[in-house]
Amino acid sequence: MRRTTTLQTRERTIEIVGRRLSRESMPRLQMSVILILTGLIGFLASVALLHLNVSQMWIRYPIAIAVAYGMFLMFLRLWLWFHGRESNCDLDYVDLPLELMDGEGLSSAESVHLGGGDNFCGGGAGGSWGESVARSADSGANSASSGFSFDLDLDLDGLVFLIIAVLVLIGALIPVLYVIYIAPVFLAEILIDGLLLAGLYKRVKKVDHPHWLRAAVRRTAIPASLAAALFSIAGFALQKAVPVAHSIGDVWRHIT
Predict the structure, then answer these.
(1) Do the beta carbons of residue 185 and residue 15 sit within 8 Å?
(2) Angle CA(20)–CA(78)–CA(70) in degrees, nearest 5?
(3) Cα 45 to Cα 63: distance, rounded to the nearest angstrom
(4) pLDDT tens digit string along 172-205?
(5) What's the alpha-carbon Rg for the chain, to the nearest Å?
């Protein structure tokens, strides 16, 4: 019973803190910035692996995403640190059941503060056949002069694999959008667990104090694994479409 009450209290506190983050901190924008930095780390990791002769995209991309995921967790840790330094508030106030307290009760949950000093807290209709040919030739000349044109030198199987790769890469955006969508609740949860480590619930007895990393991994491990799997499939399809390619950039150069 006590454990159930504690879980309900924690969920209620996370909801309150999530609403406050949404009002004051633009959590989805912050998460978007974190994910952009994470993507940059993944790109650099892929480049480094390519220079280490890991040329198979279906192998290299999941490894790069694993490296990026580790850095994503580091960025979350930095977010907790900066948020704690900037909030400048008292950690001793949160709404908890009186039976869990060592004596005095605390203030309302709506007065939850999110900081604590150095603690955690995007051919016309009337033209002749000859005129149409001339216009087509002029258009081709302009395209060549601009230095950009598509030349899909692929057989039918290669084209099918290329389409599959594009669709899979688009699908890989879904886990990213999901993490951005849950950002208010997600960041609120790791913030609450970070505050626990900073001593927010010093007066609470017999309550499990989860580490913030547990919530971070629980909410993001499946999206990260899904993204890694989709990029692996896309890498396999791309190399089937363009066997000489070792990166998405190689594929792009091959078809443009």
Answers:
(1) yes
(2) 115
(3) 8
(4) 999 999 999 999 999 988 888 776 545 555 444 4
(5) 26
